[in-house]
Design brief:
single chain, 76% helix, 3 helices, mainly alpha
Length: 59
């Protein structure tokens, strides 16, 4: 994905979270994550991304 596409996707996600509201944003994020995970052909990249996101969230 090109940087412009990534920026557009991030912006769309942020806008959707804003419309959804703070209380329901975790549900929206979970649904997006599950949808994206289901498109992966194998488990390994999904687990690696989860581990990377967890590590970065602690930094």
């Amino acid at each position: 994905m090109q940087a412009e596409d990534l920026d557009l996707a991030y912006t769309r996600l942020c806008e959707a979270m804003g419309r959804t509201g703070e209380a329901r944003a975790p549900l929206l994020l979970a649904m997006v994550c599950l949808g994206l995970m289901s498109r992966q052909e194998t488990l390994a990249p999904v687990l690696a991304l989860i581990d990377e996101a967890e590590a970065r969230s602690k930094a």
